[in-house]
Write a structure and sequence with these properties.
Layout lengths: L25 H8 L11 H24 L11 H10 L5 H7 L2 H7 L7 H10 L3 H6 L1
């Protein structure tokens, strides 16, 4: 193989040359090649908009499920503690209202034989400042 010496003449000329007066009319020729009508512009946000609407619809449906879904909390049974709390905290319910609602079996179950000594009754009456309310009830 021969050694290549760059300093020797004749040198190889490059294969690419620009034609004469090429850059003088370059911009005019380039603009003539472009189409005259403007291309249709498609927004990037158009796809995002439909995606956001789909997510919002799914979210609304997810929030509506408890409203339209079957509810198992609608029971008609009343808890005993709940009934007792209601009667306790209602000021317009008195003993006569309760007695009128009770049946004879309930009244007989309530009756108990409590033996209270006279001294305990006198002590309670002497300590209680609302003696008139106790007598009226």
């Amino acid at each position: 193989m021969k050694t290549l010496k760059l300093e020797n003449k004749p040198k190889i000329e490059p294969g690419f040359k620009t034609p004469d007066h090429y850059f003088e009319n370059f911009s005019v020729k380039m603009m003539a090649q472009f189409p005259e009508n403007e291309p249709k512009v498609i927004s990037i946000f158009q796809k995002r908009k439909s995606l956001v609407l789909m997510v919002a619809a799914v979210l609304v449906l997810a929030l509506m499920i408890p409203i339209f879904g079957p509810s198992s909390t609608n029971t008609k049974e009343i808890d005993a503690a709940e009934l007792e709390n209601y009667i306790t905290y209602q000021s317009n319910v008195n003993q006569y209202d309760l007695i009128s609602v009770l049946e004879s079996e309930d009244i007989s179950n309530i009756r108990t034989n409590i033996i209270v000594e006279d001294e305990a009754i006198e002590e309670q009456l002497s300590l209680n400042a609302n003696l008139e309310n106790l007598i009226l009830d």
